[in-house]
Design brief:
The chain is of the alpha/beta class. It folds into two domains: 141 residues, DNAb Helicase, Chain A (Orthogonal Bundle), CATH 1.10.860.10; 260 residues, 3-Layer(aba) Sandwich (Rossmann fold), CATH 3.40.50.300. Helices cover 47% and strands 13% of the residues. The strands form two sheets. It has a nine-stranded mixed sheet with strand order 5-4-6-7-3-8-9-10-11, sandwiched between helices. The chain has a two-stranded antiparallel sheet with strand order 1-2. A hairpin with a 5-residue loop joins β9 and β10. It catalyses: ATP + H2O = ADP + phosphate + H(+).
Length: 467
Amino acid sequence: MIMENNELVPESTFTSEVTDSELRIEPHSRDAEEAVLGAVLINPEKYFDVGQIISAEDFYIHRHQWIWKAFSTLIEKGRDIDVQTVSDELDKQGKLADAGGWMYLYSLVSKTPSSMHAESYAQIILEKSTRRRLLTAANQMTNLALNEKKRLEEVLDLSEKAIFSVSEQQDRKEVQPISRVLSTIFDQIKVLFQQDQEIIGIPTGFKDLDKLTGGLQKSDLIIVAGRPGMGKTGFLLSVLKNAAMTYRKHVAMFSLEMSNEQLVQRLISQQTGINSQKLRNGRLSDDELPLFVEAVDVLGGTKIFLDDTPAISPLQLRTKCRRLHLEYHLDMIIVDYLQLMTGDAGKDNRVQEVSNISRNLKILARELNVPVLTAAQLSRGVEQRSDKIPMLSDLRESGSLEQDADIVMFLHNPNSDPDKTAGLDGAMKLIVAKHRNGPIGEIDLVFLKKLARFEDAVRKSDIGGYA
């Protein structure tokens, strides 16, 4: 054995034998690496197929990394790939001797009978590379865990980030011709047309809203805002119940204002029609008790996950959601509400803090590829106007909420004197003021305050007619 670049290499470097000691060091396949390099030397066109699967860093043996980098450099220069050109390029880079010389390149060609299965060999290389990255991530996690100077929250976040980065590298997307994308879109539209289905995202259970938005879309940040008493929590719970119970979606709700017990009482109230006050004091009639027992059974069979951590930070939220998503594959995340979250302590003011929170919620939606629905408070500016109709500029404490959100909706009581109707059921407007990928408009709803439940109002016109 000889030592080469901190790697034990057999003296017979031109053979494809793999020793037990090499296999125990880290996962790799010398045969697959040699086969891929030989395939490209035989048929340079294979570089473009294989290059969509692996990169130089996926090769375990250093000389193979240098040879692949030489391939890439030649392609960038518009030159052909063969033994002579690769030898010249390696020589220019001062790596020819370390790569085994031109004789090693010839040996790669002689050992590779055909370039037909290059992609299969590349997949083997990618698998071994992924396993090595997992080992590296495990080592990083060990070092982080042993570093007691770091906060535990930071250690957990960095550890999970290390694992997610391995997963992201594994899921490499190919550059696609438009014809392939058009084929996918055609198939999707065909299915929707045949099923007469307008909802392609997560249904909210409100017909006009789902028709306007097509459901809540993956990776979107959706903000529903309003002044206190407008029923923001009731709306979020109505969406939660509809998505989880009617459509069997997996939904996580993070409540910073109410306890899990209070949320569940409201969900039971929504489901049974029993006044939430009666549920709080336990004074159920003989007719209501069976409804309560049935609701407990039905809700217990859903995939609803509740967390009532007060003043949760974006870091804590992301950590918990990642864990839930890995185990249960979440369909939607709900946060009640945004301004109660704790931002980065290093920010100079509240505006920057809220900006950081909204940005992190959007990143979470993109990272897990699920819609994130959050409530937000409006500033008092809306109360100074005679019509009291909310505007995007009323979003409290940060203009970044409007910027980061894909959809912004306002809950508005159209009654001329909302104070007189406080605590009463009544008509509500859901104003879709921003819709990044679709139309805006107004939705008519009814708020049943004693049940904290929103329902569809009788539709007066087709939602498509709204501006």
